[in-house]
Structure formats: structure tokens, C-alpha cells
Here is the input.
Amino acid sequence: MQTLLAEVPSTVLADTLHPLPVPSTLKAVIQQTFHSLPTDACRLAEALAVLDRVTTLGVAGQLAGVDAPEAALEALLAAGLVAWDPSEASTPIRIHHALQRDAIYQAIAPGRRRSLHTAAAALVGAEEAWAHRVAAAATTDAYLTSQLAAEASRQAGNGCIERATTLELWAADLSPSRDAHEDHLLTAATYLCLGRRHARALALADRVEHCAPSPRRNAVLGFLASISGNPGTAERLLTLAVAGATDPDTHALPSTWLGLAYVLRAQGAKTLSVLRPLLDEVPPTSATSQLRGIAAAAAGYIHGPRASLEVIAKARLPEDPRQVPPADSALLHARGAFRVLAGQHADGIRDLMPLVARQRTDRYVSVDAAERYNLGFAYYLTGHWDDALIAAEQALLITDDDEQPWGIAPTHALAAMTHAQRGHWEQAHTHLQACRRSTALFPELTSLFPVLAQAAYAQAQGDYPAMADALAALDETAPGTRTIYSLLGAPLLVQATTASPTLRSSRGLDNAAKAIEVLDDLSQNAPALLSTTHWLHARLATARGHSNQALSHYRQALDTPVTDDDIPLHRALCHHDLACHLLTHHQAHHRLEATQHLQLAVQRLTALRATPHAQRATAGLESLLPTSAAVGGNHDVSDPAAQLTERERSVSHLAARGLTNKEIAHELFVSAKTVEYHLGHVYAKLQLSGRRQLRRVFEPV
Here is the structure.
């Protein structure tokens, strides 16, 4: 490891797209061992290095041209270079470690290597044969290039973007002319951009930059500039690409990507001006997921998430998300995300969960952090806060791994807001700071999130002046993001504005009324939001001195039936606020009712493990009665998970749901051993003996 760190530049170490090189000292030792072996053993090792997979002794011996492969295998086993499974009749063998394989492969003479690859192509399946045919090519090969391109097109049509890209890059390397080389290179880069394989696409940026100027080159470089946070460059290059397009087919892609560049700047009107002509040309049933998804976001920036859903509805996706074809996964994500933001939480979760599951099981479906953090916001709103934190953790891993910087701020905001509601101040503060730092690349798109996170942090602390101070920065954020995320921002704004006489102003109350109007509009298609809107109407009426009107709204809020779309924090706060209203304005007649609403607030907040809110409600309850037992017993409002790390909480929550260590590892992108390690720490910290006790501690809300 020390040799590796000393010899390899940090940029190479950080490159997850390519394997690490063999350290020189280890390479020398392996090659010395290899060269000291008998001739037949060396030839068998060379064949295994070329095949680079588990294979039978018979196939490896045939490729190596060895008459007695058993004796050669014994020498390789004794040298520790080969692993085998003697329990299998076919004797499957492979080189023991990838670094050993690389060192042996590098020791094979070029001519011998080509001849081995030529022979290997006839011994393996058609899919594996491509790599051997390419490795066996001694010069450019127009015929092989055309075959590779045809296979790449077939693979891309089947959704195998990574494989199609690899084939096109091989075709580029074997092309007999510069024009052909650049054509295949640009096709490979386009596949990656369309398939949202951003890290690998960005790795090709320098090679694309050296291509001759053309609309295709400008389109690819413009797309890469847009996802890298270079909006000026993106707009310039994509505008050139659109202007240089000579037919409808070549015009559509750069136009779509120009729309994406505008969406990443939250510029809805500009986006629709570019995309509307394309939308008019596309049949409603056409699978143009990216185009319609971008147009839906643009409509949402102008008119809100209901407008986004109207754009998506024209694509006529099946209502059952499991029946949506993989090619329309991006549009399914958009539908789920905008349903969440429109208050249709259960439908949004039903769209997003199968999509996330599809990404785990189908390696051809691209993975996007946005799917995780949008699902996380759905969990946040519906009170499934442990699931929200797991979604945030998954999203952060994806943003780090696949160059999706626009997803960092919303993900940290989600984590900060959830931790704050639980009273995990240190973790909330850490994520809040990270959220602020991550807005530089996409300020128009992401500057809203630290504002929301800071306001939620102050809300959880009961610090209404700090809430108002945080929300004063709303005027500096993009109007489009405020519109589309109104379900997250409007309740915070109304609560802060109406909190106390010192915070109220005529202008502030007018802004609160406008915010409620937006939620009233959403509630037309999301009846569960009536609980939230009536609660906010009640607060506004109280602030304006309309006591009876406020009381009516409070009662209507709590009469709204509880459904899967309900926002339990809002309902709990409504109980608390109604109790305060009754004590302030109707004390003589409603003291008992106020006490009952405070008790319900404590019960609901404790169930959510919204510790700081529950503590304040409990204090109010205790001020009314000698003991809260008089109205139904004491409530432990502490959070037993407060002393755990974020990873320990995630592991504990999934274990309490009944997942095995292997299933938890799959969810959190770690090993089963790591899960076992974290569970051991959890048991020790919480003084638990096993999963049965863990389930009681993390009993689902």
C-alpha cells in the first residue's frame, strides 16, 4: 500500500473508472516467480491472463497449447498464482488476484499476446470474443470497426449503454481515418450523455475537445459543460450545435440539451421556448423521456408541480409504475418527484420505489441521486424520517461516484432538516454547512435549499426570529425553485411570519396569504393537504385578529381524514397551535379541550421522535396539570438513537424492519461485515442483546 501511494499520482488513485496499476515492487516479485516456472506452467499462466476469467482447465490448456495441463496447474498452484475448485469435475481455475493477472499479462511478448487473443476469440462466447478480436488487431481494421459499430448500436438499442460505449471506443481506436475515429468517439460520448453516465462521459471530455469543430462535438461539449456548472459555455456551444443542425434528427438532441442547460439554471421560460417546438412534433405516445422530463421541470418552475404533471400526463405512461418500460425511467422519475411536490405523496412513493428497485436489479438502468433525494423528501413529509435519512445517505454516495453535483445541496438539505426535527443538532449543523458550500456550481438551482434547511433547523429549535431571518434570503433565490418547492417552503414561511406580534407586518402577512394560496391550489388534487392549508389559514387568521375564523380553520384541519398523503408533523403542530389558541382566546370555556389537544400533540410528536417539538409540547402540558398522567400517562420524548452515528442509525432502522445483514449491505452500498460491525456498536451503545430488543427501540411510527 505504501508503494502504491508513493508511485501512483493522486488523480489516478481517485479514478474509479480504471483499475489501479500494479506497484513496481509487487510487479517485480510476481514476474520473477512467473519466469522461474516450467515452460508449460508459464504458457498456462499466459493463457489464463489473456482469458481473464474463471475457465476450465481444458479450455485454458487448449489455448496455451499445453499437452499436460494438470502438471502445469500443479506448478502454478504451488507458486500461489492460481486458484482452483477441485470439487468441480471441470476443474475451474483462474489467476488468484487481479494484480497478479495484470503483472503476468504485461510480461507476455506482444506477438504472443496477439496470437493468444486470436485463438481465444474462437474459444469464448460471442460477447467475450469482441475484446479478444480487438486485442488481436495489429493495425487499423475498417471491417472490424464496422462490426463493432453495428454491435454497439444493437447494445444501445437494448439499453446496454456502458457496453455500447466500450464497443464504439474500440471502433474509434481501430478506425483507419481521423473522420471515422472522431465519428465513433462522438457516438460513444453521446451514448454516455443520453444514458446519464456522467463520470465516464466527463472522462472523455479532453478527447472530444480535440475533435474537429462540428455540431455533434459542440453538442457533447455543451452537455458536459452544463452538468459541470459552466452555464455560459454550455449555452454558447449548444446554441451553435442547434444552429448547425441540418435535419430534424440532429436538431432534436442539442435542443433538448440546451433546454437541460436552462433547467439547471431554473429558467423555465427559456427552457420551454427551446423545447415547445419539439414537443409539438413528438406524438403523445413517443418514448421521449428526457425531453418531456425537462419540459415538465420547466413548466413547474413557472406554474408549479401541477403544471409539471400535466406535461407528463401527455406521455400516457401506465399508471402502474411496474409497467413503465425502462426506456421511460427518466419520465417515471419525473412523475414521482412532481407528485411528491404536489402533495400526492403516496403516488409519488409508489412511482419512485419501483424505479429505485429497478436500478438495483437492472444494470442497464442509470442511477441518479435525484431519485433518492426526491424519495427522501417524500419520506420526510410523510414522517418516515429514518427512511429519509437512508435515502439521503444513498444519494450522497451517488453524487460522489457519478459526478452529479446538482444533487449535493438538496441531499444535504434533506439530511439537515430531518436531523433537526429529531433534535440531532450536531449532525443537522454539519449537513447545513455542507449544503451551503455546495451551491456554488448551480446557484440558481440550489440556493433555495440552504434557506429551507436553515429555516427548518430554527423551526425545530422553536426559534421563530431565526426562522424569519433565514427565510428573508428567499428573495435572493430563483423564483422558479420557490414555485416548484412551495410545499416545503410555504409552511415554514407562514409559521415564521405569524409566530409573534414582533415578526408580523402587513407585507409579511400578505406574503403568507399568497403562500397559502399556492397550497390551496395544490390541495385541489391532494385532499390530504387540506389539513396543512387549514392549519396555516388558522395561523394567519390568528395573526390578523380573526379568532373565530381561526378556530374554524383549526377544527377543519383536524377533521381532515388521515391518509397516506398526510404530513404528520403539520397535524401534530396543528394540535399544539389549537391548544395555544384556545388558552389565549377562549380560556374560560376550552381549557379541558386545550389540554386534550396538547396531549395529542405530545403523542404524535413522540411517535415521530420529533424530540425538540415534543419537549416543548410536554412543557406546555405540564404547565396546565400537576402531572400529565392525569390525561393519559407520561411520554418519553427522548430519542434513543441520538447517541448513534448516521450509519449506525441507518443500519439499525433497516435491521429493525427485518432485513438481513446482506440485504442491509445491498441497501447501503457496504459489505455484510461492515453491517455486522455497526450492529455490534449499536448493541453496545444501547445495551441491547439482539434484534428483538432493537425492533422495540426502532419500532416504526
Summary: The chain has a mean pLDDT of 89. The first strand starts at residue 55 and ends at 56. The CA atoms of residues 476 and 523 lie 27 Å apart.
